[in-house]
């Protein structure tokens, strides 16, 4: 059955981005030579697939899209509450045979140093591939986590949190085990495709002989500046997707999303648990439905995301409203009804997904859908109860297929001079 990833909740992508000017008084090699006009801004936001016009004499600073930096040394790891980027990569690694706690610690130190450097727009003059030479950091984030199997591989079973127990089986699962779970997990996001790929290659090279890639997935979202004003994104079904995500300014946000500073185990303080699901959308079947039928499946208007009970996108859904015939306006099995926190004992997750398209099958069927990524303080109180309810009868079920899954413990952010996971690996 479908994941809560497809629920109509607000994603961090739609919060306005901060615009950081290029740093330093001079023109660094991380600045872009190009036009500063409106066309240049749009092309920059689109990921650099089209070249910039010839530069006038001198050089102009990077556009705001390229210049935006996300700090690495923060309380919570980057890539959780930051706005969604337009390009993403997800990877899972397994430690190599014979590699243990010592090798894992060295690897996390390398990864953390690489993340800090690339997120700041720096590069390694000796070993850099030059893939992203002309771009700024472009809101790059790297996020690291540990899977259930990591703890046995490193002799740290006593430090494995109970919240990392394997997810239960769901009736909707059609999982490819080779593309599920893993010892280590890495999330990369950026607003430029070359910047994201550059980070991907750096992470892979840093793994060296210590770990090997288990699986890797690529995703995308709407580019910054692609709409006339900030708007909630749409998924590949064409639905507005992200209206009711919990927001950081809500009083209970941290309680629902992050492990408290005095929580257990101690090394997870300020961390979170992420559920990753590859959800294939059966688009050929979905597109056979009429516009009205699609809205009934979701429970919201397709054009603007407003609930079928009336209002605009942010209007509270009236679950009891009926039409002239006495039928519920929002169907009893509508996806938006089933996934509401107040219909699930308050269960809440911060959804931060990417869409994906991995080609077209021999029969013409698109391999496309959602890389569902959700964050919560405890998946047994966040993801699991909602997914169980979806299993019992969601109108969206016939139009999606769950093909991969993973659960990872993501520790808090690294302090200056430290690396991610240091409290676990050196505690």
TrEMBL record:
Coiled coil (UniProt feature): none
Biased composition (Basic and acidic residues): 244-253
Cofactor: heme b
InterPro entries per the UniProt record, alphabetical: Dimeric_a/b-barrel (IPR011008), Dyp_perox_C (IPR048328), Dyp_perox_N (IPR048327), Dyp_peroxidase (IPR006314), EfeB/EfeN (IPR006313), TAT_signal (IPR006311)
Location in or out of the cell: Cell envelope
Domain (Dyp-type peroxidase C-terminal) ranges: 232-414
Catalytic activity: heme b + 2 H(+) = protoporphyrin IX + Fe(2+)
Any one GO CC term of the record: cytosol
Cofactor note: Binds 1 heme b (iron(II)-protoporphyrin IX) group non-covalently per subunit.
EC number, UniProt record: 1.11.1.-
GO molecular function: ferrochelatase activity; heme binding; metal ion binding; peroxidase activity
Segments of this protein annotated with the region Disordered: 1-30, 221-253, 294-316
EC class of the enzyme, as a word: oxidoreductase
UniProtKB keywords: Heme, Iron, Lyase, Metal-binding, Oxidoreductase, Peroxidase, Signal
BP-aspect Gene Ontology terms: iron import into cell
Domain Dyp-type peroxidase N-terminal per the UniProt entry, residue ranges: 77-221
Function: Involved in the recovery of exogenous heme iron. Extracts iron from heme while preserving the protoporphyrin ring intact.
Family statement: Belongs to the DyP-type peroxidase family.
Identification of the protein by name: Deferrochelatase
Lineage of source species: Bacteria, Bacillati, Actinomycetota, Actinomycetes, Kitasatosporales
């Amino acid at each position: 059955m479908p994941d809560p990833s497809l629920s109509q909740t607000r994603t961090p992508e739609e919060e306005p981005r901060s615009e950081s000017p290029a740093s330093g008084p001079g023109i660094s090699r991380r600045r872009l030579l190009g036009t500063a006009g409106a066309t240049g801004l749009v092309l920059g936001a689109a990921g650099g697939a089209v070249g910039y016009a010839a530069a006038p004499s001198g050089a102009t600073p990077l556009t705001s899209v390229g210049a935006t930096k996300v700090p690495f040394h923060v309380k919570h790891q980057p890539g959780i509450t930051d706005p969604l980027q337009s390009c993403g990569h997800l990877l899972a690694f397994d430690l190599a045979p014979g590699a243990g706690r010592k090798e894992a610690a060295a690897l996390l130190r390398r990864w953390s140093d690489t993340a800090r450097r690339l997120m700041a727009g720096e590069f390694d003059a000796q070993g850099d591939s030059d893939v992203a030479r002309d771009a700024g950091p472009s809101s790059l984030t790297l996020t690291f986590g540990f899977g259930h199997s990591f703890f046995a591989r490193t002799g740290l079973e006593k430090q494995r949190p109970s919240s990392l127990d394997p997810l239960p089986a769901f009736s909707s699962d059609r999982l490819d085990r080779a593309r599920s779970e893993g010892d280590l997990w890495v999330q990369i996001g950026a607003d430029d495709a070359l910047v994201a790929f550059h980070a991907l290659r750096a992470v892979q090279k840093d793994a060296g002989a210590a770990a090997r890639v288990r699986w890797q997935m690529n995703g995308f979202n709407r580019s910054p500046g692609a709409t006339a004003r900030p708007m909630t994104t749409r998924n590949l079904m064409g639905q507005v997707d992200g209206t009711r995500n919990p927001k950081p300014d809500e009083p209970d946000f941290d309680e629902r999303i992050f492990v408290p500073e005095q929580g257990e185990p101690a090394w997870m303080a300020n961390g979170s648990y992420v559920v990753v699901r590859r959800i294939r959308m059966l688009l050929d079947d979905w597109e056979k439905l009429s516009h009205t039928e699609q809205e009934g499946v979701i429970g919201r208007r397709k054009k603007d995301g407003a609930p079928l009970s009336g209002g605009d996108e942010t209007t509270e859904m009236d679950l009891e409203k009926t039409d002239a015939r006495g039928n519920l306006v929002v169907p009893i099995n509508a996806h938006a009804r089933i996934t509401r926190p107040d219909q699930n004992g308050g269960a809440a997750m911060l959804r931060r997904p990417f869409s994906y398209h991995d080609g077209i099958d021999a029969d013409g069927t698109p391999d496309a859908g959602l890389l569902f990524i959700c964050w919560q303080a405890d998946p047994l109180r966040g993801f699991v109860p909602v997914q169980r309810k979806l299993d019992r009868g969601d109108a969206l079920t016939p139009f999606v297929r769950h093909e991969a899954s993973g659960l990872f413990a993501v520790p808090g952010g690294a302090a200056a001079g430290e690396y991610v996971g240091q409290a676990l690996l050196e505690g």
